[in-house]
Amino acid sequence: MDKSTFEDPKAVISGPMHGSLRHDSAHKHVTGAADYIDDIPEPTGLLHGALGLSDRPHAEILSIDLSAVAAYPGVVWVFTGKDVPGVNDTSSNGSHDEPLLAETLVQFHRQPIFAVIAETRETARRAARLAKIDYRDLPHWHNIDGALANGSPLVTTPMTLQRGEPETEMSNAAMRLKGQMRIGGQEHFYLEGHIAVAIPGEDDEVTVWSSTQHPSEIQHIVGHVLDIPSNAVTVNVRRMGGGFGGKETQGNQFAALAAIAAKKLGRAVKFRPDRDEDMSATGKRHDFLVDYEVGFDAEGRIHAVDATYAARCGFSSDLSGPVTDRALFHADSSYFYPHVHLQSKPLKTHTVSNTAFRGFGGPQGMLGAERVIEEIAYSLGKDPLDIRKLNFYGQPGSGRTLTPYHQEVEDNIIARVVDELEETAEYRARRNAIIGFNRDSRYIRKGIALTPVKFGISFTMTAFNQAGALVHIYQDGSIHLNHGGTEMGQGLYTKVAQVLADSFQVDISRVKITATTTAKVPNTSATAASSGSDLNGMAAFDAARQIKERLVAFAAEKWEVAPSDVVFLPNRVRVGEIEISFPDFIKQAYFARVQLSAAGFYKTPKIHWDRKAGRGTPFYYFAYGAACTEVSIDTLTGEYLIDRTDILHDVGRSLNPAIDLGQVEGAFVQGLGWLTTEELWWDDKGRLRTHAPSTYKIPLASDRPKIFNVRLAEWSENAEATIGRSKAVGEPPFMLAISVLEALSMAVASVADYKVCPRLDAPATPERVLMAVERMKRV
């Protein structure tokens, strides 16, 4: 067979790794053709569920009268915690502190107490309001101050990180200062709210469609509440309309309730809370109160840091342990602390249990560190960027590479990233121009800041750093891909498909992406911790490797050539001197009884962590970035505009630059919302009042920087053996938005001629900016 029979030898495949291929569902998203769970054709006899919610923040339940609920026309069943067949608990960490339905005690306003199953969703919701519940109110506190004042217990064991002699070195430091920073929480505000559909099967079987980032946990929880084994539960997820961490554990309750009702009634059941219920009954980003002390010298070099990170965790532990742990892991930001003592304080409050959110505590830890840098800079009358650069981690051998948790920073490129952005964004010239502008401007003041990002990549729970993938090649050469990762709009499915297409050197159109399901890949980790592409991409690569090894052995034997003479080329395979189209090659392999299916597996190497000792290597590598933001504020109203942002971000050798750029841009805007417009507020009765779009302000397209320049560090390549030498992109760019808060701070500081740190807390709403301006006028 002649080479000329096939395509041009210089041909390339469409959609290889490192190519800017469009998101596989992008055209479906914009046309409305993408199917979400609420778009799936409803099974015959589908029933709908609604939650019965408490109206107390903390109280004993004395009696429950659900007779009017059950008698409402169209209601099929009403059930409480006593009707749960298995264990009435949905805790994700085995702590058994999160009841599916509260039975004798409610611990936050709008905690689920019962569930209504009816013929229509409207019927179920209306009936749920007819319950008569008697309570005995108990003392409650809904914020960190209240928790501290009442000696609140901790929801989980705190963590301490220590290195060196912080107490001694703090005393010996030439200069020292103390401060406190409040950091607000954040609502996930995914476009698609929580939803679950359960379909009963034979015997003990049940199939659940859930909008979740963690199908295996839904499988476990459903088995837990039904008292059935995991092999009887199948969980499916094709895509989510956003997740951001809010669907890592919070989908448990809706899937469990739907499954209980479906098995009880023998009919499919759907739970879809409205936005108010979703925001009231599900967790959010933890807000923090950071108390810090720093010792430093006259140059601004840090000698010692002592900080406590207290968090509002809500009524149960959920993921507060690992979230507050990660806050400490990132309390150094990009800076070397010679002597350090850090402590977490995960406080119980009578609010919904807070949970994972993009960055998972890292943003709060990093923000505290940047406040420390800012304090030093203002106390010395220096540019905060100079203090940042002075305190950066050093290169190996510098003696400045050890983190507070005793991991060496071996891949440090932060100085290069910052230097490059400083030059391309013309930071120095613009800062000087802004200082001149502020000197002459009466009401409008400007600020500029350049802040770094160093973010550790891996689950800090070592066992979660594993993934599986299932790959089939069919006789016609088409490829079927399934893996444990979930798609929430971030492009994971596209990236893993690119890995597979590149491995076999076929067009990506030959790879069929299928819904994530526990029936194909078991024991999956949540798609979280920015590790989706790292883990699942490597698992798919491993599956492809296994199949390719069999194919190479087959070809070498059949055509009597050396294995090295079997080469996969674009859409064809060269065997010695002949070339065969990929479909023909696969068909011949099938008739030779070559196994064309493989289960791939990957576990992250090198990592280990001893939480009790506060030592180890919890992260496989670090991702870096930097952002330079310029703002203008109105000192009469506190209102502001983001004039310009320049970003340089490190994603290693990008698997898909187009998708990665979108992730950087989206993360920055979401972080901008966290630090400026998004404010959670509870009243004195423990009621969340920011529970709808009318009272909770996410950033709009008009809030983006007027000039928005985003670049990837194309020269970067991961030093570790990740898939394609790429780096994670999900969470690290979120912290780039810290540059906005720091720029606002400079603008406020100009009112007092930059003599004191404004101590601007987050979110920096116009009201907070105005109050900070008024404080500066009194300096």
Automatic annotation (TrEMBL):
Enzyme class: oxidoreductase
Oxidoreductase is among the record's keywords: yes
Residue span, Aldehyde oxidase/xanthine dehydrogenase a/b hammerhead domain: 31-139
KW Cell division (keyword) present: no
GO terms, molecular function: 2 iron, 2 sulfur cluster binding; iron ion binding; molybdenum ion binding; xanthine dehydrogenase activity
Cofactor: FAD; Mo-molybdopterin; [2Fe-2S] cluster; Mo-molybdopterin cytosine dinucleotide
Keywords: 2Fe-2S, Iron, Iron-sulfur, Metal-binding, Molybdenum, Oxidoreductase
Compositional bias annotation for Basic and acidic residues: 1-10
InterPro entries named in the record: Ald_Oxase/Xan_DH_a/b, Ald_Oxase/Xan_DH_a/b_sf, Ald_Oxase/xanthine_DH-like, AldOxase/xan_DH_MoCoBD1, AldOxase/xan_DH_MoCoBD2, AldOxase/xan_DH_Mopterin-bd_sf, Xanthine_DH_Mopterin-bd_su
Disordered as annotated region, ranges: 1-22
Similarity comment: Belongs to the xanthine dehydrogenase family.
Protein name (database record): Xanthine dehydrogenase large subunit
